[in-house]
Write a structure and sequence with these properties.
The protein is an alpha/beta fold and 193 residues long. Helices cover 34% and strands 24% of the residues. The chain has a single domain, classed as Maf protein (Alpha-Beta Complex), CATH 3.90.950.10. It binds inosinic acid (IMP). Inosinic acid (IMP) binds next to strand 3.
Length: 193
């Protein structure tokens, strides 16, 4: 079977991708190819960081590879934290630190529009491709729900009364930024056969 590297060691992302790609590609992780370097993601865009990871692996290991990067963009904060979403409250912060900082930054703010974006960069047979997924919604006044991770307890997607953390995996995957970008990647790879 054809092999493709997913430039991640995130167990949840890997399991999900392996399930979806079963029978089409054998999906290898960074660990699987012996890539233990710390890939410095220092681009100032989500697209840029996705590309840095995919290019690093393709250039060094000469393999087809894809990589994803996501972030939360809040309109009233000029698009912040965006590419810095993981480290919004500091270098070694927790998800809860980020949620607390966001709620404080948005206190009293009436424009609560926000969007999650995922970009997947793919290097395949010497060509580069990008796939994007976006989910629009709003930042809630307080956190609700226990499912998920990151900013899920304070992100309410458009058309729903619940936050991502209250909606559960299945609904979230159907409408989320990552779900949409991933389905675009898979449709593209399936089309190639
Ligand atoms: P990553 O590029 O997928 O690792 O995402 C970067 C950061 O964006 C994460 O550490 C989270 O803080 C935030 N983030 C990305 N996707 C989600 C999501 O689906 N829910 C909540 N937070 C997310």
């Amino acid at each position: 079977m054809k092999q493709i590297v997913f430039a991640t060691n995130n167990k949840n992302k890997l399991r999900e991708m392996r399930e979806i790609m079963e029978g089409l590609y054998e999906v290898l992780s960074l660990d699987d190819i012996g890539c233990h370097e710390d890939i410095v993601e220092d681009a100032d865009t989500i697209e840029g960081n996705a590309k840095i990871k995919a290019d690093f692996v393709t250039n060094k290991y000469h393999v087809d590879c894809f990589s994803d990067d996501s972030g939360l963009e809040v309109e009233a904060l000029g698009g912040a934290p965006g590419v810095y979403s993981a480290r919004y409250a500091g270098e070694h912060c927790t998800y809860q630190d980020n949620v607390d900082k966001m709620l404080a930054a948005m206190k009293g703010q009436t424009n609560r529009k926000a969007a999650f974006r995922t970009c997947i960069a793919l290097n395949l047979d010497g060509q580069s491709y990008f796939f994007e997924g976006r989910c629009d919604g709003r930042i809630t006044e307080e956190q609700r729900g226990t499912d998920g991770f990151g900013y899920d307890p304070i992100f309410q997607p458009d058309g729903y009364e619940q936050t991502f953390a209250e909606l559960g995996h299945e609904v979230k995957n159907a409408i989320s930024h990552r779900g949409k970008a991933t389905r675009k990647l898979i449709a593209f790879l399936k089309d190639l056969g």
